[in-house]
Specification:
two-stranded antiparallel ribbon; elongated; 4 strands; mainly beta; 54 residues
Length: 54
Amino acid sequence: MLKAKKIRTLRLEADLAFYTTNGEWEAEPGRFSVFAGNSSKADLEAEFELAAPR
């Protein structure tokens, strides 16, 4: 637990892929938001973008 006004860096790894109706494992590119807090009223938010494969 962090004390008030303290900052820590968090590294989050998540697999955003899923099986399509064709049975292929893929992830859809797009913008995503991650929320953090001690309840459903999370007040910390970060965004990231999953780029399409080249």
